[in-house]
């Protein structure tokens, strides 16, 4: 990056002045926030000691941060660090996450400034990275109107049809499972948001969602870039941070612009022509803004394939439950959800085992606060360590193992079980707006795939099964499985017939 900087930088007195002003602001911010007084004998949240001015910059892990924070948790469940003057608090327990982000949601529901994404990456219209404002409340209200729990039943038919379509494509080309999961996630978003049916094989809207997601992984969470820590630096042109960075930003901004406008106008045209699929959110809220977050649901679906392959016992139990209810004569629908507790437990474990957003999305506090004698100043960035909340040995013995049985009481779903969905979709007033929709999409796809297919490990030349690498990659915000091979085959010809027949009805 420095090399790019030298190559592209030519001395410009105006830029020099801006840069100098930025540095002064930066130093004064560091000076005042590290000096920031503690009142009446209150203490700071504990954490590694750090250095003058840069604070804990050198202590911060470069990758898989949630695991390092879990290590630190052995000493403290609420950790305070300070990176170049920016106070950061990491909530390492269910109790702390609930106490602050849910119970005190009124003052912990801002987002840290995401200058890089919002200013250069064209994300300023997306709710997820918006700071508290009238527009943010308006968007949440609109989304809630379309996606509250009671509304989701309106989309059941669409979700079921997309899942059947996915299964029929999977039946023809099982080796393309990953690409097909991508298509299915995008297709759900497109039809539910805009009433737009995606094309036969490739669809530019779905491909765009995927491309945005790939760029986003590179950029990541709050504080991933120096400009997010010191917003004054955003007065500099993007090329100041390297030509690659500037190109990535340009590409992301153009993708984001098209993601907003292309499907929106396509949807309006389809409504006008009467060719739109209904019901869609666009139908409900012609003027509403839309969110493209199918990518997270995508990773959930991939992980369910992975777990079913590596944990065949869980797969067999879930299939036995489905067969016991439907006798191989019908395919599951949403009506069967309550009668399939082991499938529910399996889904809960898929969500818990490797939460896609292990540190959620960062929140920011808007008022000074005191928690258990610790002073948390306004403007603190708060990371809920969702991974730690769902990997607590006391709550989930042997937390690294995939065990749906944790939630079972005999043949019933155990009352009072800790539900992963209370954590993986975030907390309080900024919790995921699409959580009920995502819950329905993930359930339907897991259940149909279990009902129709067997997923197994591929066999190598020596005749022994090839185990996938279960270590995951961690982008700046999200967990990703490493590529793996698997065998997906129809459980029986009659199930294939049932699938073909349901596609024709
Ligand atoms: C399995 C799939 C999904 C997971 C695990 C997930 C998870 C999350 C998480 C952890 C957050 C941050 C919550 C917080 O700040 O505390 C979030 C925010 C958000 N999600 Fe999702 N999400 C999923 C699917 C969806 C879908 C399908 C949609 C849209 C239909 C959606 C729309 C949003 C929006 C709009 C926000 C921002 C809310 C705000 O900042 O006020 N999500 N999601």
TrEMBL record:
The keyword Transmembrane applies. InterPro entries: Cyt_P450, Cyt_P450_E_grp-I, Cyt_P450_sf, Cytochrome_P450_fung. GO terms for molecular function: heme binding; iron ion binding; monooxygenase activity; oxidoreductase activity, acting on paired donors, with incorporation or reduction of molecular oxygen. The chain crosses the membrane at residues 14-32. The keyword Heme applies. Its cofactor is heme. It comes from Sistotremastrum suecicum HHB10207 ss-3. This is Cytochrome P450. Heme binds at residue 432. Keywords: Heme, Iron, Membrane, Metal-binding, Monooxygenase, Oxidoreductase, Transmembrane, Transmembrane helix. Belongs to the cytochrome P450 family. Gene3D superfamilies: Cytochrome P450 (1.10.630.10). Pfam families: p450. Pathway: Secondary metabolite biosynthesis.
């Amino acid at each position: 990056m420095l090399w790019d900087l030298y190559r592209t930088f030519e001395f410009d007195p105006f830029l020099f002045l801006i840069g100098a002003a930025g540095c002064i602001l930066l130093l004064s911010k560091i000076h005042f926030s590290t000096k920031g007084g503690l009142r009446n004998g209150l203490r700071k949240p504990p954490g590694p000691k750090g250095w003058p001015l840069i604070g804990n910059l050198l202590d911060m892990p470069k990758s898989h941060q949630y695991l390092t924070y879990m290590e630190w948790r052995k000493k403290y469940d609420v950790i305070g660090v300070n990176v170049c003057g920016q106070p950061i608090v990491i909530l390492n327990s269910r109790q702390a996450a609930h106490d602050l982000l849910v119970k005190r949601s009124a003052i912990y529901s801002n987002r840290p400034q995401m200058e890089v994404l919002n200013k250069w990456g064209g994300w300023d219209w997306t709710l997820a990275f918006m700071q508290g404002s009238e527009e943010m409340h308006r968007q949440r209200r609109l989304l809630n109107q379309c996606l509250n729990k009671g509304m989701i039943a309106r989309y059941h038919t669409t979700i079921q049809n997309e899942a059947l379509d996915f299964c029929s494509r999977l039946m023809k080309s099982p080796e393309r499972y990953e690409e097909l999961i991508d298509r299915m996630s995008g297709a759900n978003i497109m039809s539910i948001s805009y009433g737009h049916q995606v094309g036969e094989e490739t669809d530019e809207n779905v491909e765009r969602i995927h491309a945005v997601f790939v760029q986003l992984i590179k950029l990541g969470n709050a504080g991933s870039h120096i400009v997010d820590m010191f917003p004054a630096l955003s007065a500099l042109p993007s090329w100041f941070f390297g030509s690659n960075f500037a190109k990535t930003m340009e590409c992301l901004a153009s993708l984001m612009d098209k993601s907003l406008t292309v499907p929106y106008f396509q949807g309006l045209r389809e409504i006008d022509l009467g060719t739109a699929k209904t019901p869609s959110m666009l139908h409900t809220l012609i003027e509403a803004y839309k969110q493209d977050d199918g990518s997270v649901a995508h990773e959930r679906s991939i992980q369910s394939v992975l777990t079913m392959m590596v944990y065949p016992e869980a797969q067999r139990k879930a299939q036995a439950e489905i067969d016991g209810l439907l006798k191989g004569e019908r395919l599951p629908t949403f009506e069967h959800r309550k009668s399939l507790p082991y499938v529910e437990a399996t889904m809960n474990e898929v969500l818990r085992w490797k939460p896609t957003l292990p540190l959620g999305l960062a929140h920011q506090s808007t008022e000074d606060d005191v928690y258990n004698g610790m002073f948390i100043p306004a403007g603190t960035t708060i990371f809920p360590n969702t991974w730690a909340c769902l990997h607590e040995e006391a709550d989930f013995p042997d937390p690294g193992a995939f065990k749906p049985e944790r939630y079972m009481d005999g043949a019933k779903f155990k009352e009072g079980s800790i539900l992963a969905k209370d954590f993986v979709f975030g907390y309080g007033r900024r919790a995921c707006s699409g959580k009920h929709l995502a819950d329905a999409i993930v359930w339907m796809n897991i259940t149909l795939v279990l009902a129709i297919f067997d997923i197994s490990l591929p066999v190598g030349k020596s005749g022994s099964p090839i185990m996938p690498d279960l270590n995951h990659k961690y982008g700046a915000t999200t967990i990703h499985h490493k590529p793996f091979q698997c065998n997906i085959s129809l459980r029986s010809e009659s199930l294939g017939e049932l699938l073909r027949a349901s596609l024709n009805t």
